[in-house]
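Lab meeting minutes (informal)
Scribe: AK
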Amino acid sequence: MANGFLTTHVLDTGRGQPAAGLRIGLFRVSIAATEEVASMITNADGRTDSPILPADQFVTGTYELLFHAGDYLRQTSQAGTEPLFLDIIPIRFGISEDTHYHVPLLLSPYGYSTYRGS
């Protein structure tokens, strides 16, 4: 049984608060195909209510998180003029160990950053 799992959260650095209501998709990526594994919405704390990749579905490999930032920025009146500078933000990363991975997004209307958290 796997011990690993994946969590994420989104902080709205432009407003200085968690990004509630932001849709996130998780995809498993291989040479043959890209498969959607999960789709979740962030809660009031900017986190998903459960791991986006729980231990019972955990497999090492290449993954991609798609953060639907444009929809969130429109909903919070931060979008600016269309087309948006940031809309869907993809973060592709590798999971090579059977452990907890945390991939957060720090978001503003004109920039973002991420890191491997704990």
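Next up, CB showed the second protein from the same session:
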Amino acid sequence: MSFIKLFLLFSLIFTLILITSSSTPPAASPFSFLKDVEGAKKGDKVHGIGDVKHYLQRFGYLEHHQHQQNHNHNHNHNHNHHRHRDHIHSHQDHDHHHNNHFDDALESAIRTYQINYKLEPIGILDQKTIFKMMQPRCAMPDITSSNNKARMLAGMKWAQAQQAHGYGPLYTFFPGAPRWPPSKFTLSFGFPDGTTSLAQNAIRRAFSIWSYNTHFRFIQAPFEVADIKVSFHSGDHGDGVPFDGPGGTLGHSFQPTTGVLHLDADENWVVGEAPYSFDLISSALHEIGHTLGLMHSLNTDAIMYPILPMGETKGLNWNDVQGIRVLYNDLL
């Protein structure tokens, strides 16, 4: 067999291996518990509703004290009838899983979620709502405020107006609109030892895309001194926002000038579109947006939209660029 034929044969085998590995269906999503509560509505008592409450509290739609108070009331009367479930949760919210009562606060939170995601705001966990909630997404909340209840009520009216008129900014900022100071035109980013060259190249590309669309210049620096520290982690990694395994939350980043960007090491990361995989450039673009001061957008085409389905790629949208320009208006 000639060298060329041998080379082509090995290339074909290698390509088949890549396709097979990237096409392997992932394990059950951390959000799979949502299938068990489809159709639930106010007044129902369904095993798994406590996990729904944690999901909505986690992403800013339900205040912690609302479902905790409900649990405390029920716990006093039904102590012997509760069973613990081991779905995704933080230690501080451990007890609320015992509360499987679909109450008024949950109905209101679901309506807000449905409005934000352009679903019919019926307050019921219907099929479309469950499907949306199960999508892989950023771990950062959609609603961030020291007073979530007031923010949700205002947000509902605002979102309804946007849907009615078909326009609006749709981008959001962290509370207080923190940003990098005027003196920081150049921001450095770095990776810890052991980060693969593939990952570094993809994330470096994401920074260059943001650089092209902002006044910032990004340069690579040693991890220890970088303004933005980029790293991959699994599970609980000490920042209070644990990852949950394949297909759940993909990453999270904190407001300026914290400079922390974390990605879930358990995801099947690729560059480009591949079945059962996530595009690293797209996810990095989203998380970099957080480090610059953007929170989530309601524009489904925006990179700051919180959901990134498997096998898809996204780039910056006019909404993302407009949000940065408004936040740093006096610098542009």
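CB comment: Residues 211 and 217 are 6 Å apart (CA to CA).
No objections, moving on.
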